[in-house]
Amino acid sequence: MVPIEYYLLLSAAIFSIGVFGILTRRNALLFLMSVELLLNAANINLVAFSRFHGNLTGQTFSLFTLALAAAEVAVGIGIILVLYRNFKDVDVTEAATMRW
Amino acid sequence: MAPLPFELTPAIAALPFVSFLIALFVGAFAPRLLPKGGAVPGILATGGSLLLSLWVMLTVSGGETYHEYVTWVAGAGEATFDLHLGVLVDPLSAMMLVIVSLVAFLVHIFSLGYMNDEGETGLPRYYAGLGLFTASMLSFVFADNLLMAFMFFELVGLCSWLLIGFWFRDDAPPSAAKKAFLVTRFGDYFFLVGLVGVFATFGTSMFVGGEGEGAIQSFPHIAEQVLAGEGAAEVTTYLGLDPQAWFAVLGLLILGGVVGKSAQFPLHTWLPDAMEGPTPVSALIHAATMVAAGVYLVARIYGFYALLPQVLALIAFVGGFTALFAATMGVVKREIKQVLAYSTISQYGYMMLGLGAGGYVAATFHLMTHAFFKALLFLGAGSVIIAMHHNEDMWDMGGLKDRMPVTYYTFLSGSLALAGIVPFAGFWSKDEILYEALVHGLNTPLLLAAYVMGLLAVFFTGFYTFRMVALTFHGEPRSDTARNPHDVRWNVKGPLAVLGILAAVAGVVNMLPVQKVLGVKNIDFLHQWLDSGPEALSAHHYGELLHDFAHYSAGTIGSGVTTVLLGAGLSLALALAGAGLAWKLYAVPDPEEHTDKLGGAKTVLFNNYYQDEYQVWLAEGLTLPLARAADKFDQGVIDGVVNGVSSVSLFGGSRIRRVQTGVVSNYAFLLTASFVVLLVVIGLVGGWF
């Protein structure tokens, strides 16, 4: 059996890649993908701990999270669509006209 | 069920009020339907009031009195009180109702001659003002509590403003009206504070208490019980004063309103200016309404003042001083109405002296006789002014005696009464006031000083009165209008005749010296009259209060009879001396201005002791800069702090908002960085490393 530390390391690595993506990218689509990475890093943790403790609740939760992520993507893509219609671009730094 | 005339008492005030409404609305919307510009409804209404008042007085003389009230604001809970509107008919108010409605009735008739015949415009407004004035004063007279009295007191002030400023297109009348309004309002401010104080202290402002268990007590009665230390009456005092001192404060506050309305020093300055109004209005203001209201108020709550010796002494002193002070100014005036204005101030000074010296009946007596003879003198002056084509300067008159005999003889009757020559009305009342001041003054130095001032004023009164008579009616005419005066009609002569007779004979109601010297019993009708009615409001009861609480006791010089003779003889001699001197100087074919020989003193007197100047200085030189400084403090310091706080916030906000860049990456960075910092801090504190 693979020890739990491996899973946690994998999860932390994916999470860090997601954070890096959010902090450095300006393209809204890449933003959305990075957020997906963050979510899935959490999912990996849920599944890993579920297996480690011999309890199926964590895996059930990860199923819910997947469904939620799908809904989130729908909303996110909607926002990106509106962003494109208004600014002819999907650069997130452009959309700063409503600050003050 | 009260007798019918008592049930009808509110109608005494309601009738003139209806005439006010008629003159106002019919005059505004259908002036053609209003005969004589509103005079007819006014005459009918005041005539009706007079008849009703006489009926009420007749019923009161049968020994019955009436007190009925409605609650218009009911208090809720323990520590509150009810506000009432009520009617109190006792001998004092019944007498005053007759005086006020009689004078108002005669003034309305006289106005036909003074206003209608002279072709004045705006008559509905004039008669509406007169109607409201009469209605407010009558309601004030039968008010049964201090709050109601205050409300109508204010209404009287408003009406005087309306009527003094009747000729509002000229310059002087509006200014005089404003002055009268503001000066009396200054006094009324103290009255209002005193009124609130009375409510806070006693929980009621009733003049007379109800009968039976749990009935409302009158506030003078509660005060009496508290000071006597008997009964279960509870009062709340303030400022850490004991009841005696606190009651004196309340008495002084209410006195503020009295001093303003009754034109006592130092708030007398509005009254001479009020001569700018039409002459019948002056008669009404001076004889029966506005100015009388102040003195009547003190008489109404005399049961309260009789408990306060310090306040009484102050009333007497201010009264005596005002009597002398105003009389000296009357000596040098050129205009007939100005002389009468200063005589009014002086005569009300006598009434205050009488009240302060413990002469409740004497002051009420003088209030009555003065109402008759001063209304007469003003209406007589009005008649002269009609004849002189509205020239009021006495130095342009002269010789009017033969040309207007009715006016002359009635005016002479009023003048003899004013000067206090026996047997005219003014002699009896003024003498009784001076007698009271003398006998009580023998044991109280302050009262004696007030008495001496009152006595000196008698000389000046005689002098200015007969200077006025001689200059107006005697000698050779000094102008063309005086040689050929305008005629006056029945509507002027009628009221003059009625008042002329009253001024001559009204003294018989209270010939106290005759009773004391000759021993004729029971001719002090006014004493008996004011002694009837409710015990707590009787002259007899006030006498006891004065003795027990104010420690007034009567002294004598030699025996009682010699004191009476000495007092009366002294005042009569002084009055005759003043009148005789004036007669000798001015009743010559071609009089000179002898007062010019007074030199600088005349200038001071002619300028009213610079009272107006110093009051204007108080307003412009002291109050205005003070108000400016306060305004500067408000605008600069208070508003500055408020504005400073807001500009600091505004500036700070405009800088701090730049944190919000609107770039989502920055927010994400801040979130992440904060999270990391939080983790590190928790780690350090939690000891992970």
Structure description:
Chain A has 100 residues and is mostly helical. Chain A has one domain (4-87): Helix Hairpins, CATH 1.10.287.3510. Chain A is 78% helix and 0% strand. The longest helix of chain A is centred in the C-terminal third of the chain and has 31 residues, at 57-87. The radius of gyration of chain A is 17 Å and the shape is elongated. Chain B is mainly alpha-helical and 689 residues long. Chain B is built from 28 helices and two strands. In chain B, helix 11 (279-287) packs antiparallel against helix 16 (360-387), helix 14 packs antiparallel against helix 15 and helix 17 packs antiparallel against helix 19 (445-473). Chain B is globular, with a radius of gyration of 31 Å. Chain B starts with a helix and ends with a helix.
Key terms for this structure?
heterodimer; A: 100 residues; Helix Hairpins; B: 689 residues; two-stranded antiparallel sheet
Q: Please name the two chains that share the biggest interface, counting residues whose Cβ lies under 8 Å from a Cβ on the partner chain.
A: A-B, 13 and 10 residues
Radius of gyration of CA atoms of chain A, rounded to a whole number: 17 Å
Q: Could you list the spans of chain B in which at least 5 consecutive residues all have pLDDT below 50? A: none
Shape of chain A: elongated
The amount of helix of chain B comes to 55-70%
What is the percentage of strand-forming residues of chain A?
A: under 5%
